[in-house]
Amino acid sequence: MKNLFRIARWEFVTRFRSRSFMFNTIVSPLLFTTVIMLPLLFFEHQPEQSTKLVGIIDLSGENIARDLQKELNRYYRLNNTSPEYMVLNVSVNNSEPYQEKLGEFREIQARRDSINQLYNQIKQQRTRYYQNTKLPNRTYLLQSSYKKLQQVREEKELVDIELSRFRTALDSVYKFEAQKMADSLIVSGVLNSYLIFDTDFKETGIIHYNSNNPGDFLDTARLEKILQAIIIKKRILGDNVERSKAAHWLRPIKLKKFRVQGGVQREWDFYIQFYGPLIGVFLLFMAIFTASGYIFSSVLMEKNNRVIEVLLSYATSQQLMGGKILGLGLLGLVQIFIWIVITLALAGANIIPVQKIDYLTINNALYFMLYFSLGFLFYGAIFITVGSVSANEYDAQQINQLLRTVAIFPALLSLMVLTEPNSLLIRILSYIPFLTPSFMIMRIPLSTTPITEDIYITTLIMFASIAVLMYLSGRIFRVATLMQGKKPTWSEIMRWVRAG
Amino acid sequence: MEEKLLEVQEVSKSFGEQQVIDKLSFRVKGGETFGLLGPNGAGKTTMMRMIMNIIRPDSGAILYNGEERRKIKGLHFGYLPEERGLYPRATVLEMLVYFGTLNNMARRKAEVEAIRYLDRLGMVEFTDSRVNQLSKGMQQKVQFVAAFLHDPDVLILDEPFAGLDPINQVVLQEILTEYKKKKRILIISTHQMEQAEKMCDHICLINQARVILDGRLSDLKKKYRENAYLIESDSPMDYLHEMKGIKILEEKNNAYKFAITDRSMTITSFFGLIKGKVKIRKFEIVEPSLHDIFIKMVQKESAGA
Ligand SMILES: Nc1ncnc2c1ncn2[C@@H]1O[C@H](COP(=O)(O)OP(=O)(O)OP(=O)(O)O)[C@@H](O)[C@H]1O
Ligand SMILES: [Mg+2]
């Protein structure tokens, strides 16, 4: 028994002093947290750096730019309170192709006007003929003027069709020219984006958004929201509703987000709710795989170096296994303890807003240690077996890689866990011992109702699988570590298990 | 002081289908150096591992002073495995202290003893070096220290001389001679017959899982003596060829190895026959070397099998 503690001490001390422990405890988590928080920082701060220019191509003649500017100013301002967005009409009234087309359009317009005039003249003349019953050849005059009127009307209709056709053409030339110009403004960096309002945008509700980066959902979400309000207002006013009434109806709505838990209301923050548990999973994963990884490399190294033979001659294989598990398990707990101290320090320095993070509790810290211990014992037992059985480091590392991938898999489903931490699928998945620690460490802070039942169930399942694994690995370890060169077959392994 | 005794009784071990040890028995007395010899693959290492309780026999018993090996508590074993193994990244001293404490030594005591032995093996300046910075032979010496640092009751060395230079071989022999004086159990295996001849008091030769020769070295030598003699003089002694009752086995530079074939011929009568003819420089009874016995026995056994 004493030897177990001596072995534990040795494993603990040699690993604690190693550079890799330092790396896994401080550098890696720091790196991960930074990488995960970085986009967040950009996301929040970059837009506030300078005013953005938004171009407008307005084919509707509604003077949308003015409304848009007004609304944007109301909601979005930079720190120094100057507007965050500037709206700019992209006008191409002076461009040559447009002027040319406009000339033609005017010509037709003039022609239509003169035809209209003629038509009206004839109409008036006919009225006169009609009224003057004493006119000598009245019947003839009426008849011939009617023919003329008919002719002019036909001509008038043709001109009208031509004119409306020309108007569309003119619009599309305008649009084309304006878009050409706006594109070049985007490319040259003057504009951040531009919007196209077609003549019928009020009815269709469709507005084109053009930018280098249409995926920038912060800007698009804001514009969408504001345009929605503007268009609806226009529609309402179009139905002859009083201005003041419309303004009242359209008073903006803001969702204040709260979360209900144990009767206490707290403001809900997506980043804290999402990234917090994700960092938690990462840390748990780090802790489990740092410690069990050390078990693994230690078994592998002792086997390959044949120190194992010296060790087995001075200690039993149970002592050896037990010592490693104890020593490196403690090392893992020390690692977690270091993290707790760092968290407390950061909280003390007000770098972490603890009062906003309701899952930073002693209880949850204890759960963290519980799932660390379970995960460590589980993966540790697997690693002892794999390490003692595998014939070379390469094979062993492959299995190591595979197990790590399996264990981190729940992090990929973190969004699912966030939206519904207690869905049937997530519950079932968290009963699988390989996945239990990662899932549970996300579910505990995210679930709005306590999941004590699942904590009991998963702990039981883990305990049972650890017991089985430890039993098997104890039997395999002893025989397998003395083997050299070749990989044992499955039937051999089965025999060792039976023979003990 | 009571006599120490290690007994191996009808021990068998097989790996899968292969019978590596077949009902092997021998006894090792405290104070004698016991040599476990045999060709490659004979099963020496396997036998030693069983004595160390690293692997368990399939059947048979290993007893120390009548007590079963597996149940013994508080007895210290020292082992130099055939395949040396150390922690490459640990420093020499901390690793030796670790091994020492595994054998119930106090840390302080382990440290003192380790430094003492390292000094003796000419390695004090390396106490704080990392193991992987040492040469192969130096690592070997560290491994020795790990085996007898804790002054074990049973010391088992698997091929201790492999890879050591002559000076260190002598140092090691000295240490072992000292150890022997404590009347404890000492078992070594080696392929170097001169070493075995110099060191061992008792020989156990195993081949193909079985003991083929077991006994005190001096008894064995007597037993395998061929009744052969060596005579060397300052001038040729051609007449020996004609002499009745003897047979020349080898001759070289006025030295003749012969065997007495006639029972009536004695050494005294032989000397009577050659008296006054030459000046004799050397005369000795030819002892069979362990080397010869080994080869002869293994070949005989293999031919018979
Ligand atoms: N762990 C093991 N699993 C399977 N076979 C083994 C194992 N250890 C030894 N053997 C086999 O047992 C036989 C005896 O091996 P052992 O190492 O005891 O021989 P040895 O006498 O020490 O030989 P050498 O002089 O070459 O060291 C060999 O045929 C070897 O292949
Ligand atoms: Mg051997």
Automatic annotation (TrEMBL), chain A:
It is found in: Membrane. Residues 19-473 form the ABC-2 type transporter transmembrane domain. The chain crosses the membrane at residues 21-43, 274-296, 325-348, 368-389, 401-418, 454-473. It is a multi-pass membrane protein. Its main location: membrane. Keywords: Membrane, Transmembrane, Transmembrane helix. One of its GO terms (molecular function) is ABC-type transporter activity. This is ABC transporter permease. It holds the Pfam family ABC2_membrane_3. GO terms for cellular component: membrane. Coiled coil: none annotated.
UniProtKB/TrEMBL annotation, chain B:
It holds the Pfam family ABC_tran. Residues 6-233 form the ABC transporter domain. InterPro entries: AAA+_ATPase, ABC_transporter-like_ATP-bd, ABC_transporter-like_CS, ABC_transporter_ATP-binding, DrrA1/2-like_C, P-loop_NTPase. Keywords: ATP-binding, Nodulation, Nucleotide-binding, Transport. One of its GO terms (molecular function) is ATP hydrolysis activity. PROSITE patterns: ABC_TRANSPORTER_1, ABC_TRANSPORTER_2. It comes from the Bacteria. Belongs to the ABC transporter superfamily. This is ATP-binding cassette domain-containing protein. It comes from Caldithrix abyssi. The lineage of its organism: Bacteria, Pseudomonadati, Calditrichota, Calditrichia, Calditrichales.
